[in-house]
Amino acid sequence: MENSTAVTFSSGRVWLDDANGIVRVEFAPGTHQTLQIAREVIAGINSITSGARRPALVDLTKVKAIDRDARSYYGGPESMTSWPALAMLTDSPLSTTIANIWLAVYSAINGRRANPSKIFSDEAAAVEWLKGFRS
Fold first, then answer.
1. 4 touches 13 (CB < 8 A)
2. Is 6 left (phi over 0), alpha (psi -120 to 50) or beta?
3. Is the pTM of this model over 0.70?
4. How far apart are CA 27 and CA 41, in angstroms?
5. End-to-end Cα separation, the chain, in angstroms
6. Judging by DSSP bridges, how do beta strands 86-89 and 117-120 pair with one another?
7. Positive or negative, the Cα torsion across 5, 98, 37, 80?
């Protein structure tokens, strides 16, 4: 359910899913996320939303790894202002582990201030959960 509003970055793309009122992030197969890629993702989100906060669905099914600096950046204040809630889609034990590591770092950095985030293996369930955070 995508539309033509999309931003590509070095390892994927970010686009608005207007039908569901969310932002979607997709990575190229085998992506190893670095701090540079993390910054590109957040810049892409901010670009297509014009600064409006929309819940985000990040598809991690094709991600191979995420560097520590990238995880820290995603859990930091600059990134946190880009979405009110975040769902991560996984399809394997490896991607679930990556997502759990990110959640642990994110929660440790932000504590109670952390935006709601959750890991899903079912895309429809993730979208339904995110709909509760649309403004």
1. no
2. beta
3. yes
4. 10
5. 19
6. parallel
7. positive
| DSSP string of 81-106, one letter each residue | TT-S-EEEE--SHHHHHHHHHHHHHH
- In this structure, which amino acid lies at residue 40? E
Q: Could you tell me which residues come within 8 angstroms of residue 47 by beta carbon, excluding any fewer than 6 positions away?
A: 7, 14
Contacts of 20 (CB under 8 A, 6+ apart): 1, 127, 130, 131
> 2: Cβ–Cβ under 8 A, 6 or more apart, which residues?
15, 16, 17, 24
Q: How confident is the model at residue 94, as a pLDDT? A: 76
Q: What is the DSSP letter of 76?
A: S
Positions of E strands within 60-125? 63-66, 86-89, 117-120
| Residue appearing with tokens 């359910």 | 1
Does the pLDDT at position 108 exceed 80? no
35 has a pLDDT exceeding 70: yes
